[in-house]
RNA sequence: GGAGGGAUAGCGAAGAGGCUAAACGCGACGGACUGUAAAUCCGUUCCCUUUGGGUUCGAAGGUUCGAAACCUUCUCCCUCCA
């Protein structure tokens, strides 16, 4: 097995480490490491996946992952990388989010069979009294040290509450706890976590622990065009199939630009260096074949949603992008179109196309519907319709039940007749 | 408390009595091209079947044949002085 740190460096996932030589030495033996996840939503998103995959890499290299869900710190809010104060969530919300994250993380790291450990820092932070905290943690941090942190500095102008200011102490207390209870020797995180990680190491040192502990960060990833990674059509890309269907997930990755796709392969897949370099060569020589994008989409969909969902996503993709949806059977449509908006329509003899578009929310207004039709944006079962007075009839129903309407290049809506 | 400046379509920003459903830029959406890419080009972007109609320019009143534009009051924002 190649050196994990070298592998991370190759993949562009290495930002900085507190003591590289020391860590390399320590990693010759299996070690426990941790990474935190903030319960700020009811699902992890594509950006979080990077962190998960990095944990999996370390796990594959023989180390033991501890995933910490911030049920306690999530009550406070991490100021790192943020320009304004966080809106606090209720106790119930944080608890619910935490539970979701645990379920999602389990699928990748496998807590149940002991391959990884799950903890919620609410377990120790929730019952911690203010007095204890100030005596046992706060006493070890000079105010100057805290004030000089970048996360705090950046907020001095815009304002920062005492609550968020204190956040770093809570996270360092996490590390101390894991160090003492789980023999955890490494904390990893995005580069914005450097301040919090080093604060943890500081606390461990000041508590008189000699056994070395480490911190390592990876860069915050960006797209080549400078826009934020992990967004599509304004919305975030989630791991939860109810929020982002496997088909949408597959589409998100296959739409990666040539400039980004090789990076994504390095960051998110477990393909070897040789395999990645071969695909990079493909991008250079045969960009139109989009081998790299296809491989990426396949890998990511299999990883997150499994082989069966991948198969479905590929089936839907080929039907939709060949434009030949009319060949699909009723069964296939029922399976495949779960990913798309649907509209139940009364099965009348004939319905004005414009009315259908508006009723099914494909167009926001009749005026817009007319415009779409006349501009050639509307396809019924794969066939363009440009007549404003066109109507849907029984002939337009596949299997007597379905009509597939496409607006623009790839927005599909399934009309179900009943 | 005093003195000014501002509020215009998703956002930014023109307009200072009729030629304004409101320039321009961005965004968004369509189309062409293409590789489900990028770039580019073209079109649309308040609502309604119309070279036509309706409802808009912070809110409410008023002046006028006619107001986003003028007056009054109110609400909110910003700057300066205390």
UniProtKB/TrEMBL annotation:
Annotated residues for binding of L-tyrosine: 34, 167, 171
Zinc keyword on record: no
Superkingdom of the source species: Bacteria
A Pfam family per the record: SYY_C-terminal
Domain RNA-binding S4: residue ranges: 352-413
PROSITE patterns: AA_TRNA_LIGASE_I (PS00178), S4 (PS50889)
Classification via InterPro entries: aa-tRNA-synth_I_CS, aa-tRNA-synth_Ic, Rossmann-like_a/b/a_fold, S4_RNA-bd, S4_RNA-bd_sf, SYY-like_C, Tyr-tRNA-ligase, Tyr-tRNA-ligase_bac-type
Positions bound to ATP: 231
Motif range ('KMSKS' region): 228-232
Chemical reaction(s) catalysed: tRNA(Tyr) + L-tyrosine + ATP = L-tyrosyl-tRNA(Tyr) + AMP + diphosphate + H(+)
Subcellular location: Cytoplasm
Motif segment ('HIGH' region): 39-48
Family named by the database record: Belongs to the class-I aminoacyl-tRNA synthetase family. TyrS type 1 subfamily.
Binding partners and assembly: Homodimer.
Name of the protein this chain belongs to: Tyrosine--tRNA ligase
Organism: Sporolactobacillus spathodeae
């Amino acid at each position: 097995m190649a050196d994990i740190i070298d592998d991370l460096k190759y993949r562009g996932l290495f930002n900085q480490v507190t003591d590289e030589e020391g860590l390399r030495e320590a990693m010759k033996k299996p070690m426990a490491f941790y990474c935190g996840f903030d319960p700020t939503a009811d699902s992890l998103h594509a950006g979080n996946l990077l962190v998960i995959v990095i944990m999996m890499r370390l796990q594959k290299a023989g180390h033991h992952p501890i995933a910490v869900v911030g049920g306690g710190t999530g009550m406070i809010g991490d100021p790192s990388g943020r320009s304004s104060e966080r809106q606090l969530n209720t106790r119930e919300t944080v608890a619910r989010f935490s539970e979701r994250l645990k379920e999602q993380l389990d699928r990748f790291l496998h807590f149940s069979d002991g391959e990884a450990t799950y903890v919620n820092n609410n377990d120790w932070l929730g019952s911690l009294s203010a007095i204890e905290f100030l005596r046992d943690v706060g006493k070890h941090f000079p105010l100057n040290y805290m004030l000089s942190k970048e996360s705090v500095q950046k907020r001095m102008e815009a304002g920062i509450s005492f609550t968020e200011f204190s956040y770093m102490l809570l996270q360092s207390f996490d590390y101390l706890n894991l160090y003492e209870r789980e023999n955890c020797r490494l904390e990893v995180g995005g580069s914005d976590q450097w301040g919090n990680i080093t604060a943890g190491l500081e606390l461990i040192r000041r508590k008189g622990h000699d056994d070395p502990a480490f911190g390592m960060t990876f860069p915050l990833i960006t797209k080549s065009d400078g826009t934020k990674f992990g967004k599509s059509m304004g919305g975030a890309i989630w791991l939860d199939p109810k929020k982002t269907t496997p088909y949408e997930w597959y589409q998100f990755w296959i739409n990666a630009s040539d400039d980004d796709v090789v990076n994504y392969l390095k960051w998110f897949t477990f393909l070897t260096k040789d395999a990645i370099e071969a695909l990079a060569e493909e991008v250079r020589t045969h960009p139109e074949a989009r081998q790299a994008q296809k491989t990426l989409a396949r890998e990511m969909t299999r990883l997150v949603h499994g082989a069966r969902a991948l198969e479905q996503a590929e089936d839907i993709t080929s039907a939709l992008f060949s434009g030949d949806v009319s060949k699909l059977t009723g069964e296939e449509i029922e399976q495949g179109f779960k990913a798309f908006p649907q509209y139940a329509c009364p099965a009348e003899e004939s319905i004005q196309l414009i009315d259908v578009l508006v009723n099914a929310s494909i167009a926001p207004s009749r005026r817009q519907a007319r415009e779409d039709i006349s501009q050639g944006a509307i396809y019924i079962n794969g066939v363009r319709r440009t007549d404003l007075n066109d109507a849907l009839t029984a002939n337009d129903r596949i299997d007597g039940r379905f009509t597939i309407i496409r607006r623009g290049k790839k927005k599909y809506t399934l009309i179900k007749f009943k």
